[in-house]
Amino acid sequence: MSKKPTKVAMIYDFDETLSVTYMQDYILIPSLGMKPGTFWKKANQWSRDNCADQVTGSMYYFFKTAKEKGIKLTRQFFCEAAKSITYFDGVEEWFDRINEYGKKLDLQIEHYIVSSGYEEIIAGASIRKHFTDVFGCSYAFGEDGTPVWPARVVNYSTKTQYLSKINKGLGKLEDRAVNEFMPDEERPIPFRRMIYFGDGMTDIPSMKLTKQRGGSAIAVYQPKSKHKQNAIKLLSDDRVNFALPADYREGKQIDIVVKTILDKLATERDLEELQAKEEKKKIKIPF
Protein backbone atom coordinates (compact mmCIF):
# COMPACT_ATOMS: atom_id res chain seq x y z
CA MET A 1 0.00 0.00 0.00
CA SER A 2 2.89 2.37 0.72
CA LYS A 3 4.22 4.48 -2.18
CA LYS A 4 7.82 3.86 -1.15
CA PRO A 5 9.43 1.31 1.17
CA THR A 6 9.31 2.12 4.88
CA LYS A 7 12.73 2.09 6.55
CA VAL A 8 13.41 -0.26 9.45
CA ALA A 9 16.73 -0.36 11.35
CA MET A 10 18.14 -3.56 12.80
CA ILE A 11 20.97 -2.67 15.16
CA TYR A 12 23.41 -5.25 16.49
CA ASP A 13 26.09 -5.49 19.08
CA PHE A 14 28.83 -7.73 17.62
CA ASP A 15 30.73 -9.73 20.23
CA GLU A 16 28.63 -12.59 21.66
CA THR A 17 25.64 -11.28 19.72
CA LEU A 18 26.69 -12.16 16.18
CA SER A 19 30.09 -13.74 16.90
CA VAL A 20 30.57 -16.51 19.41
CA THR A 21 33.19 -14.59 21.43
CA TYR A 22 35.14 -11.32 21.36
CA MET A 23 36.56 -10.47 17.93
CA GLN A 24 40.00 -9.80 19.42
CA ASP A 25 40.20 -13.34 20.84
CA TYR A 26 40.54 -15.15 17.52
CA ILE A 27 43.83 -13.88 16.06
CA LEU A 28 44.70 -10.50 17.55
CA ILE A 29 45.42 -11.57 21.15
CA PRO A 30 47.12 -14.88 20.23
CA SER A 31 49.43 -12.92 17.91
CA LEU A 32 50.67 -11.13 21.02
CA GLY A 33 51.67 -14.49 22.50
CA MET A 34 48.88 -14.37 25.11
CA LYS A 35 45.70 -16.20 25.89
CA PRO A 36 42.52 -14.10 25.83
CA GLY A 37 41.83 -14.56 29.54
CA THR A 38 45.33 -13.43 30.46
CA PHE A 39 45.27 -10.43 28.13
CA TRP A 40 41.89 -9.09 29.30
CA LYS A 41 42.88 -9.53 32.93
CA LYS A 42 46.07 -7.52 32.41
CA ALA A 43 44.35 -4.86 30.28
CA ASN A 44 41.54 -4.38 32.78
CA GLN A 45 44.02 -4.16 35.64
CA TRP A 46 45.98 -1.49 33.75
CA SER A 47 42.73 0.45 33.31
CA ARG A 48 41.95 0.25 37.02
CA ASP A 49 45.48 1.24 38.00
CA ASN A 50 45.28 4.31 35.77
CA CYS A 51 41.62 5.21 36.44
CA ALA A 52 40.94 4.69 32.75
CA ASP A 53 37.70 3.77 31.03
CA GLN A 54 37.93 0.00 30.52
CA VAL A 55 37.38 0.11 26.75
CA THR A 56 39.80 3.02 26.25
CA GLY A 57 42.34 1.31 28.49
CA SER A 58 42.18 -1.98 26.60
CA MET A 59 42.64 -0.16 23.28
CA TYR A 60 45.77 1.51 24.62
CA TYR A 61 46.99 -1.76 26.13
CA PHE A 62 46.69 -3.49 22.75
CA PHE A 63 49.02 -1.16 20.90
CA LYS A 64 51.31 -0.79 23.93
CA THR A 65 51.77 -4.57 24.12
CA ALA A 66 52.15 -4.94 20.35
CA LYS A 67 54.84 -2.24 20.28
CA GLU A 68 56.73 -3.93 23.11
CA LYS A 69 56.66 -7.22 21.19
CA GLY A 70 57.61 -5.64 17.86
CA ILE A 71 54.29 -6.46 16.17
CA LYS A 72 52.91 -3.94 13.64
CA LEU A 73 49.15 -3.59 14.06
CA THR A 74 48.38 -2.21 10.61
CA ARG A 75 44.89 -1.88 9.13
CA GLN A 76 45.64 -4.95 7.03
CA PHE A 77 46.64 -6.88 10.14
CA PHE A 78 43.32 -6.00 11.79
CA CYS A 79 41.39 -7.02 8.64
CA GLU A 80 43.14 -10.38 8.59
CA ALA A 81 42.17 -10.88 12.23
CA ALA A 82 38.53 -11.06 11.11
CA LYS A 83 39.07 -14.09 8.88
CA SER A 84 38.78 -16.59 11.76
CA ILE A 85 35.69 -15.10 13.43
CA THR A 86 33.09 -17.76 14.24
CA TYR A 87 29.46 -16.65 14.02
CA PHE A 88 26.38 -18.11 15.61
CA ASP A 89 24.33 -20.48 13.47
CA GLY A 90 22.57 -18.73 10.62
CA VAL A 91 24.23 -15.33 10.97
CA GLU A 92 25.88 -15.29 7.55
CA GLU A 93 22.60 -16.15 5.79
CA TRP A 94 20.42 -13.98 8.01
CA PHE A 95 20.75 -10.60 6.33
CA ASP A 96 19.78 -11.52 2.78
CA ARG A 97 16.91 -13.66 4.00
CA ILE A 98 15.39 -11.06 6.33
CA ASN A 99 15.89 -8.32 3.72
CA GLU A 100 13.90 -10.36 1.23
CA TYR A 101 11.14 -10.89 3.79
CA GLY A 102 11.02 -7.15 4.47
CA LYS A 103 10.89 -6.37 0.75
CA LYS A 104 7.66 -8.38 0.42
CA LEU A 105 6.15 -6.06 3.05
CA ASP A 106 7.47 -2.89 1.39
CA LEU A 107 9.96 -2.50 4.22
CA GLN A 108 13.50 -1.37 3.52
CA ILE A 109 15.68 -2.93 6.18
CA GLU A 110 18.97 -1.26 7.09
CA HIS A 111 21.47 -3.10 9.28
CA TYR A 112 23.87 -1.35 11.67
CA ILE A 113 26.54 -2.43 14.13
CA VAL A 114 27.02 -0.51 17.39
CA SER A 115 29.86 -2.25 19.20
CA SER A 116 32.77 -1.82 21.55
CA GLY A 117 34.70 -3.97 19.10
CA TYR A 118 37.07 -2.53 16.53
CA GLU A 119 35.93 -1.11 13.20
CA GLU A 120 39.30 -2.12 11.73
CA ILE A 121 38.54 -5.78 12.45
CA ILE A 122 34.90 -5.59 11.38
CA ALA A 123 36.12 -4.11 8.06
CA GLY A 124 37.55 -7.55 7.22
CA ALA A 125 34.55 -9.55 8.41
CA SER A 126 32.63 -11.63 5.88
CA ILE A 127 29.35 -9.97 6.95
CA ARG A 128 30.57 -6.34 6.73
CA LYS A 129 28.95 -5.87 3.30
CA HIS A 130 25.48 -6.19 4.81
CA PHE A 131 25.72 -3.11 7.05
CA THR A 132 24.68 0.43 6.17
CA ASP A 133 27.18 1.67 8.75
CA VAL A 134 29.36 0.43 11.59
CA PHE A 135 29.79 2.42 14.80
CA GLY A 136 32.64 0.91 16.77
CA CYS A 137 35.92 1.70 18.45
CA SER A 138 38.59 2.88 16.05
CA TYR A 139 42.25 3.83 16.09
CA ALA A 140 44.15 6.83 14.79
CA PHE A 141 47.16 5.62 12.79
CA GLY A 142 50.61 7.19 12.58
CA GLU A 143 52.92 7.65 9.62
CA ASP A 144 54.22 4.09 9.99
CA GLY A 145 50.67 2.72 9.64
CA THR A 146 50.31 1.58 13.25
CA PRO A 147 47.94 2.84 15.99
CA VAL A 148 49.01 5.87 17.97
CA TRP A 149 45.78 6.72 19.83
CA PRO A 150 42.16 5.58 20.31
CA ALA A 151 40.34 7.82 17.79
CA ARG A 152 36.85 6.76 18.81
CA VAL A 153 35.68 4.81 21.83
CA VAL A 154 32.28 3.13 22.09
CA ASN A 155 31.26 1.89 25.52
CA TYR A 156 27.93 1.04 27.14
CA SER A 157 26.99 4.65 27.86
CA THR A 158 28.03 6.10 24.49
CA LYS A 159 26.22 3.45 22.43
CA THR A 160 22.92 5.30 22.82
CA GLN A 161 24.17 8.34 20.87
CA TYR A 162 24.51 6.16 17.79
CA LEU A 163 20.89 5.09 18.08
CA SER A 164 20.02 8.79 17.91
CA LYS A 165 22.22 9.20 14.85
CA ILE A 166 20.43 6.32 13.12
CA ASN A 167 17.12 7.82 14.18
CA LYS A 168 18.07 11.16 12.59
CA GLY A 169 19.93 9.76 9.59
CA LEU A 170 23.30 11.18 10.69
CA GLY A 171 26.80 9.95 9.93
CA LYS A 172 29.21 8.84 12.62
CA LEU A 173 31.11 12.16 12.64
CA GLU A 174 28.05 14.41 12.89
CA ASP A 175 28.35 14.81 16.65
CA ARG A 176 26.89 18.30 17.08
CA ALA A 177 23.81 17.57 14.98
CA VAL A 178 22.84 14.64 17.19
CA ASN A 179 21.70 17.09 19.90
CA GLU A 180 19.97 19.54 17.59
CA PHE A 181 16.18 19.57 17.43
CA MET A 182 14.55 17.62 14.61
CA PRO A 183 10.76 17.13 14.42
CA ASP A 184 9.79 13.48 14.82
CA GLU A 185 8.09 13.38 11.44
CA GLU A 186 11.36 14.37 9.74
CA ARG A 187 13.42 11.59 11.31
CA PRO A 188 14.17 8.84 8.76
CA ILE A 189 13.85 5.92 11.19
CA PRO A 190 11.70 6.43 14.31
CA PHE A 191 12.58 4.34 17.35
CA ARG A 192 9.41 2.30 16.97
CA ARG A 193 10.90 0.95 13.74
CA MET A 194 14.15 -0.14 15.40
CA ILE A 195 15.08 -3.64 16.54
CA TYR A 196 18.12 -3.86 18.80
CA PHE A 197 20.07 -7.11 19.32
CA GLY A 198 22.47 -7.37 22.26
CA ASP A 199 23.84 -9.89 24.72
CA GLY A 200 24.56 -8.30 28.05
CA MET A 201 25.38 -5.49 30.44
CA THR A 202 27.04 -3.16 27.92
CA ASP A 203 23.85 -3.18 25.83
CA ILE A 204 21.40 -2.36 28.64
CA PRO A 205 21.15 1.43 28.05
CA SER A 206 20.57 0.90 24.31
CA MET A 207 18.10 -1.92 24.87
CA LYS A 208 16.16 0.06 27.43
CA LEU A 209 16.09 3.21 25.27
CA THR A 210 14.88 1.28 22.22
CA LYS A 211 12.14 -0.43 24.22
CA GLN A 212 11.03 2.75 25.99
CA ARG A 213 10.72 4.60 22.67
CA GLY A 214 8.45 1.90 21.23
CA GLY A 215 11.02 -0.24 19.43
CA SER A 216 11.94 -3.87 20.12
CA ALA A 217 14.95 -5.04 22.13
CA ILE A 218 16.15 -8.64 21.90
CA ALA A 219 18.64 -10.12 24.37
CA VAL A 220 20.41 -13.08 22.80
CA TYR A 221 22.31 -15.79 24.62
CA GLN A 222 24.45 -18.76 23.75
CA PRO A 223 22.29 -21.88 23.95
CA LYS A 224 23.09 -24.10 26.93
CA SER A 225 25.25 -21.48 28.66
CA LYS A 226 25.22 -19.37 31.81
CA HIS A 227 24.38 -16.36 29.63
CA LYS A 228 20.81 -17.59 29.39
CA GLN A 229 20.05 -16.50 32.96
CA ASN A 230 21.51 -13.04 32.30
CA ALA A 231 19.24 -12.61 29.29
CA ILE A 232 16.19 -13.82 31.18
CA LYS A 233 16.98 -11.36 33.99
CA LEU A 234 16.95 -8.53 31.44
CA LEU A 235 13.51 -9.72 30.39
CA SER A 236 12.34 -9.95 34.02
CA ASP A 237 13.67 -6.45 34.71
CA ASP A 238 11.61 -5.14 31.78
CA ARG A 239 14.69 -3.97 29.90
CA VAL A 240 14.06 -6.06 26.77
CA ASN A 241 11.06 -7.41 24.90
CA PHE A 242 12.53 -10.85 24.21
CA ALA A 243 15.29 -13.17 25.49
CA LEU A 244 16.17 -15.67 22.75
CA PRO A 245 18.88 -18.21 21.85
CA ALA A 246 21.49 -16.78 19.47
CA ASP A 247 20.40 -18.94 16.54
CA TYR A 248 19.60 -16.96 13.39
CA ARG A 249 18.56 -19.87 11.18
CA GLU A 250 15.24 -19.90 9.38
CA GLY A 251 12.38 -21.12 11.54
CA LYS A 252 14.27 -20.57 14.81
CA GLN A 253 12.97 -18.22 17.54
CA ILE A 254 14.83 -15.08 16.40
CA ASP A 255 13.64 -15.60 12.84
CA ILE A 256 10.02 -16.07 13.93
CA VAL A 257 10.01 -13.13 16.36
CA VAL A 258 11.66 -10.66 13.96
CA LYS A 259 9.35 -11.60 11.08
CA THR A 260 6.37 -11.10 13.39
CA ILE A 261 7.68 -7.66 14.38
CA LEU A 262 8.08 -6.77 10.70
CA ASP A 263 4.52 -7.94 10.00
CA LYS A 264 3.31 -5.67 12.80
CA LEU A 265 5.25 -2.66 11.51
CA ALA A 266 3.88 -3.13 7.99
CA THR A 267 0.32 -3.47 9.31
CA GLU A 268 0.65 -0.35 11.46
CA ARG A 269 1.98 1.61 8.49
CA ASP A 270 -0.90 0.44 6.28
CA LEU A 271 -3.42 1.34 8.96
CA GLU A 272 -1.90 4.83 9.34
CA GLU A 273 -2.21 5.36 5.58
CA LEU A 274 -5.85 4.28 5.60
CA GLN A 275 -6.60 6.59 8.52
CA ALA A 276 -4.90 9.48 6.71
CA LYS A 277 -7.16 8.91 3.71
CA GLU A 278 -10.21 8.97 5.96
CA GLU A 279 -9.10 12.26 7.50
CA LYS A 280 -9.10 13.82 4.04
CA LYS A 281 -12.74 12.81 3.59
CA LYS A 282 -13.92 14.80 6.56
CA ILE A 283 -16.17 17.71 5.69
CA LYS A 284 -15.91 20.85 7.72
CA ILE A 285 -19.45 21.82 8.71
CA PRO A 286 -19.85 25.58 9.22
CA PHE A 287 -21.57 26.69 12.41
Detailed description of the structure:
- The chain is α/β, with parallel strands linked by helices and 287 residues long.
- The chain has a domain of 199 residues: Rossmann fold (3-Layer(aba) Sandwich), CATH 3.40.50.
- Helix content is 40%, strand content 17%.
- The chain has 10 helices and 7 strands.
- The protein has a 7-stranded mixed sheet with strand order 4-3-2-1-5-6-7, with helices on both faces.
- Helix 6 links the parallel strand 2 and strand 3.
- Helix 2 packs across helix 3.
- It starts with 5 loop residues before the first strand and ends in a 6-residue tail after the last helix.
Give descriptors for this structure:
single chain; 287 residues; alpha/beta; Rossmann fold; 7-stranded mixed sheet; 40% helix; elongated
Could you give the topology of this structure?
Layout lengths: L5 E7 L15 H4 L4 H14 L4 H15 L6 H6 L10 H14 L2 E12 H4 L10 E9 L5 E6 L6 H10 L25 E5 L5 H9 L3 E6 L5 H10 L5 E4 L7 H29 L6
Parallel strand pairs: 1-2, 1-5, 2-3, 5-6, 6-7
Antiparallel strand pairs: 3-4
Helix pairs in contact: 2-3
